[in-house]
Amino acid sequence: MNIYKFARIVCKDLRIKVPVIKKIDMLNTPTQLGRFRPDQNTIEVKKVYENELDLYFAVAHELRHKYQIDYNIYDFENYKQSDATSITDYNLQELEIDANAYAYLVMICMFEARVLFNGFEQRVIEKIMARAEEILNNRNP
User: Fold this and answer.
1) 5, pLDDT greater than 90
2) Which residues of 116-133 are buried (b: 16+ CB within 10 A; e: fewer)?
3) How far is CA 62 from its chain centroid?
4) Are 127 and 98 in contact (CB under 8 A)?
5) Within 13 Å, how many C-alpha atoms sit on residue 57's CB side?
6) Please, which residues have CB within 8 angstroms of residue 20's CB and are 6 or more apart in sequence?
7) Are residues 50 and 74 in contact, defined by beta-carbon separation less than 8 angstroms?
8) Distances in Å between the alpha carbon of 117 and those of 50, 53, 71, 73, 120?
9) What's the pTM?
10) Which residues make Cβ contacts (< 8 Å) with residue 49, sequence separation at least 6?
11) Residue 22, beta-bridge partner list
12) What pLDDT shows up at residue 79?
């Protein structure tokens, strides 16, 4: 499946409009997989990934951020960018937990691929799994 068809499927699930997807050479940090630019309604992803599934995870994650913004789910006012804090503090932000949890579920449902979250602290992974369970059970979409 190409990335644009994938994005349309995820956007339909999230009830959001499909943004432009741009492939670029570099993002803010070496570990960053993608970014959503709300002012441009654009998702930027790297041109090359070691594992193609990382591209799909990145797009699902960033589409969840678009959903968060479109539906005013989280307060982005105090949001810290990945290059402005530690990787753990960045990933412990509620909106990152939510985006990772949603993308985790998408990867399982669409590719039968389980995300390992290598390099994440166990407490971050536990919060992602708890949020995934909430999303799955529709307790807090």
Assistant:
1) yes
2) eeeebeeebbebbeebbe
3) 4
4) no
5) 20
6) 40, 41, 42, 43
7) no
8) 15, 13, 27, 24, 6
9) 0.92
10) 33, 55, 58
11) 44
12) 84
Strand 42-46 vs strand 20-24: parallel, antiparallel, or unpaired?
A: parallel
Q: What is the pLDDT of residues 56-95, one digit of tens each?
A: 999 999 999 999 999 998 888 888 887 778 889 989 999 9
Contacts of 131 (CB under 8 A, 6+ apart): 97, 98, 100, 101
Q: Could you report the per-residue pLDDT of 18-65, keeping only the tens digit for each?
A: 999 999 988 877 778 899 999 999 999 998 888 999 999 999 999 999
CA 15 to chain centre: 16
Which of 26, 28, 23 lies closest to 90, judged by CA? 28
Give me 35's structure tokens: 């970014």
Enter the tokens of residue 137. Answer: 């059970």
127 phi and psi, to 5 degrees? -70, -40
* pLDDT value of residue 141: 63
Residue 44 DSSP SS3: strand
**Domain 3-136, CATH:** 3.30.2010
Query: Are 41 and 71 in contact, with CB atoms under 8 Å apart?
Result: no
For 141, the 3-state DSSP assignment is coil
pLDDT confidence tier of residue 140, bands split at 50, 70 and 90: low
